[in-house]
Amino acid sequence: MTEGAGAKVFDRSPYGNNGTITPGGGGLVAFWANTLLDKPVGTFDGLADFINCGTDASLDLDHTYTVALFVTPLTATINMLISWGEQVAHKRRSMYLNNVGILWFSGYADNLSSAIDIQTDGLEHHIAYTISPSYLVKIYVDGRFIISDTLALETPAFGNMYVGKSETATEFAEGQLRGVRVYNRVLDDREIKTVSELRRRL
After folding, report:
1. Which domains are present in the chain?
2. What is the pLDDT of residues 111-160, one digit of tens each?
3. Which of 51, 49, 41 is nearest to 18 (CA)?
4. What residues contact 202, with CB distance under 8 A and at least 6 apart?
5. Of the residues 67, 98, 110, 190, which has the maximum number of CB atoms within 10 A of its CB?
6. In this structure, is the dihedral angle defined by the CA atoms of residues 58, 136, 79 and 180, taken in order, positive or negative?
């Protein structure tokens, strides 16, 4: 997300799942007002900003995938970073920060905490999770494996994939998000470490 203007963010993968920005009260100018490492970065206001990534079949992921992104949370509040699925027990797929900055994977009623505060230091962090076919969830922070557990997840009905909000539009991200990547396979520890080191090349 380094476009710097306009209501589109462009997918660099062969799938072309470009996202559409819905800006909050400050509009697109406020969304693109900041830079990081001399490049534009999307700043989410915690109230209404989000990106709709659409419903392409390539995003209909129940398991056997990896999600990774860079985040700089601005406040200690519920930060919904990326989400799809259903707000039904075991059928959500999301990453969020709780109100004290702890990173969680949420399956809705079946969750996994990293026990890592990535908000208080005010720095950018790389976060990632993987899900295997057995619903083994692994969480990574700054390229380092943190925790894993097998969760009682269930296949969700696929809807839109969102960056910066929950599927119900009641929880939003407040902070800067960039470098969002979704892989249709489980990356190993070495690969996630490599992705986490792309910070200056985004």
Report:
1. 8-201 (2.60.120.200)
2. 999 999 999 999 999 999 999 999 999 999 999 999 999 999 999 998 89
3. 51
4. 2, 37, 39, 70, 178, 179
5. 67
6. negative
